[in-house]
Amino acid sequence: MKYLIPAGVFALLVVVLAIGIQRAPSKNVIPSALIGKPAPTWSLPVIASNQSPTPASFDSERLRGRWFVFNVWGTWCPECKVEHPMLLEMARQKKLPLIGLDWKDDDAAARRWLESLGDPYDVVVADRDGRTAIDFGVYGAPETFLIDDRGVVVYKHVGAMNPDVWQREFLARLPTAAPSDGTQGQP
Amino acid sequence: MTPRRRRLILVSGIVAGVALAGFLVLRSLQENVMFFYDPTQVAVGEAPIGQRFRLGGMVKPGSVQRTAGTLRLAFVVTDYKRDVPVQYEGVVPDLFRENQGVVAHGRLGTDGVFVAEEILAKHDENYMPPEVARAIKEKHGGVMPKGPTP
Amino acid sequence: MIPELGHFALILAMLVAIVQSAFGLAGPALQRERWIAAVRPAVTMQFLLQSAALLALMFAFVSNDFSVQYVAQNSNSALPVVYRVAAVWGAHEGSLLLWGWILAAWTLAVALFSRGLPAGFAARTQGVLGLVSVGFVSFTLATSNPFERLLPAAPDGRDLNPLLQDPALASHPPMLYAGYVGFAVAFAFACAAMIEGRLDQTWARWTRPWTTVAWAFLSVGIALGSWWAYYELGWGGYWFWDPVENASFMPWLVGTALIHSLAVTEKRGLFKSWTLLLAILAFSLSLLGTFLVRSGVLVSVHSFAADPTRGIFILVFLVLVIGGALALYAWRAPLLRSTAGFEFSARESFLLFNNILLVVAAAAVFAGTMAPLISDALGLGTLSVGKQYFDPVFLLPTLPLIALASVGIFSRWKRGQLAPHRGAILFTLALAAAITAALMLGVWGGAKFLTPVGFALGFWLIAASFVDPVDRLRRGLRLTPAIVGMTIAHIGLGVFVVSVTAVESYTRERDLALAIGESGRVGDFDYRLDGLRSAEGPNYDALRGTVTVLQAGKPVVTLHPEKRNYWVQGSVMTEADIHMQPARDVFVALGEDLGGGRWSVRAQIRPLINYVWLAAFLMAIGGIVAASDRRYRRSGESV
Q: I need a surface site. Which of A63, C33, C128, C522 has the fewest CB within 10 A?
């Protein structure tokens, strides 16, 4: 009988561990502290834009009044490459303007990247010293923010974008009248 | 003493010793664990006054105030619903900054100010203290609040 | 191509492991000689395949193959080659691969050194190890494949976490795993003995060296981790009772108990079922440690990004391995009764108490580690358990343990004959008390009430450890490696107790706010901030402080603590500077800009702290020496 005690204690332990797993926070629940707060403002040099001629710099104030997607990426970031086709798909749908923040990167490398893989962005700005990314609380690329017409961060996604997140977390959050808002007049 | 009797004494001695150790362990556990409270629990008076506990939440933007040139520091910990003012003296960890999760060990004073003895550091920026994440998640039903919070 | 070959080798390794366990377990049961004969080649094959997999991943790292996702996430072309190799086990997937390889290496060692063992028993042992291997490799393949490709390839990698770019931490996981996994050998010996339903003194003699070597590795692994935490985390502490630390410490405590109970089983044929239970427990706690670290169930400063689905896999694995072994135990252990008796003050009694106290200590650590989880699972609230709990609860069983060790060294097997040694016991105790008094009155001054207790116990153990070997030498007897090893390990423990006592009692620490040119006093040292300038490293830039430490107005040393900013990951890291001396460490870390021209500086003076790790290495050396005893290499006569 006494030889069964260890097995019994272990069984209890397994129950506790099983419950523990159920309650363990998964990696993706890290909320951004910025959500519900005004997005940081920035004014940064432009790497590429769909306007011609390409302006030398771009100011976040110019986005006020419309919903947009803010994507943090870099050519050094493997996950960004995975994400890229999804960004192209998002751009193709023309539901929201897509602003790229090229984080701690080399401008020439970024231009080569956009040329060879395609440019989904309406504007790409360069965050050479990483200041703006820090303001946004970015801890790794890629990260994608949804920002509303008042300049408030509505949602943040960590990691590569995918159709599911795009549909459920981004498009679903738009006010019903808003989607068309984004397509009018590129920034 | 017969060997049998001696054995009996030995065994009962061991059993008594282990039982005593078990009792002491449990009592020490009862006295020395630190419970975790979030700012709302503190604000509504659920947290004990004068006892050590852990307070977790986000460092409220714009709330960090230093007395210039000293180690004294005051900031506000928030769960986007209620705020708790915190005082601390010492070196803060590398990842302590506004808008980041923080866990402080310390005591709550009668004036409602939490005096921290220790501010927790983590290796990874990729981190929000799970208690904090859960507390915030439960508070907002898994969705972060939209729009500016009160 | 190379990564695919590695992946393929790993799949083959799993298949071979299945063959190894099937033949190893079924062969002896069905008495098929040829199946038994196939086990050893299978083990060799498995080791070669696992090595191929590990080398393939290493190659991918060294050649900067960023088309492999794991490499892209944990390395960078700017990373020095040494750390590219160490980056193999810098995160979850690779450390699992390393774990599997170490298990294969241990199994191969068992296969090579088991030629003296009965064929059936050796086959069963390797069969059990094969089962563990199947579990681990399938876990790696199913949930954490390190060879996954990233297409198109990344131009450069995300870099290794800067905290891991450090020699001590690069070697910490291999050592720790060698210890953890080494207990699998004792576990497999125990399972094989239970399957056969026979366990005798020869069995204990086979098991002892394996257990001792694994224990030595674990000691070094824990010490390296603690040393790293001390100088790299920038907090200056060496032990935090963090769940991950506890996860490695519990198997160590139980392993220590196992080493001592194996001695009794070997010499006297006693404690058989207890020894079995400890062997199962030591490995179970190692697996549990892995579970706790990998599943994210417990929060820790050391844990990698955690993933609950992996947790479920490990939990199932845990249930199969530990649950299976404990069921086997419940079924078979009653057959293995011990019969001999012993007197109260015989060595057996001391080792019995040693075992009880060690297991109580492990249980206390276990209770504290699991309490947050249990409280959470039962919905009693979120809590945490810290130093306030662990320190007293751990000292409660360990202080008497040290005292018992000092007396127990003099005891003899079977008969209580302490009386002839009364003089030596009292002399060593008096010597220890005198040294303690001299230290406290002459050098360091008074401190907490446990300070003299700690010093006296530590010095007593050191002094008592010397008596028996010196006595043997005087009588012209040969000193066997077993005795030398035991003596070294016990001296190591004594040194550990003394140094921890000194560190806990006489550490002086302060956070200072200093402007350039200003100084602040810590203990009898003055810290003067002389300047700040920027500096640059291979993959980071830094703010570098110059701090001169003075004692009685004379400069002792100039230190350069840094605040580093690693480019690729954009993380800020405090790099403390420590002046290591035999008598004390002078520690300084740079905090942040406080405004008003002042900077925060964390200053600490820690006496004897280096002996804490030195002691762990002494214990490990003692273990290795003891395990090298020729006695263990004689071939086994019978089971």
A: C33
> Which residues, 6+ apart, have CB-to-CB distance to C423 below 8 Å?
none
Asked if C545 contacts C560 with a C-beta cutoff of 8 angstroms, the reply is yes
pLDDT in tens, C114-127: 888 899 999 999 99
Give the pLDDT confidence of C189-216 residue by residue, as tens digits. 999 999 998 888 889 999 999 999 999 9
Any idea where the domains of chain C sit in the sequence?
2-393+617-633, 508-608
Q: What domains sit in chain A, N to C, each tagged with a CATH number?
A: 33-183 (3.40.30.10)
Q: Give the residue ranges of chain A where pLDDT is below 70.
A: 23-34, 78, 137-140, 176-187
User: Residue A32 is inside which H or E element, if any?
Assistant: none
CATH architecture of B36-139: Beta Barrel (2.40)
| Nearest-angstrom CA–CA distance, C269 and C263 | 9
The Cα angle at residue B90 between residues B85 and B91, in degrees rounded to 5 = 110
What integer pLDDT is reported at residue A131 of this predicted model?
Answer: 74
In this structure, the dihedral spanned by the alpha carbons of residues C208, C209, C210 and C214, taken in order and rounded to 10 degrees, is 110
| The pLDDT of residue A26 | 42
Chain B nearest-CA distance from C411, in A, is: 18
Task: Look at residues C253, C249, C232, C233 and name the one whose alpha carbon lies nearest to residue C241.
Answer: C249
Of B26, B68, B125, the CB nearest to C571: B125
Domain boundaries, chain B: 1-33, 36-139
Half-sphere exposure of B110 (CA within 13 A, CB side): 0
Chain C residue with Cα closest to B88: C511
pTM, two decimals, is 0.81
Q: Give C77-80's long-range contacts (Cβ < 8 A, gap of 24+).
A: C77/C156, C77/C157, C78/C159, C78/C538, C78/C539, C78/C568, C79/C157, C79/C159, C79/C160, C79/C165, C79/C539, C80/C538
Q: B73 to chain C, minimum CA–CA distance in Å?
A: 9
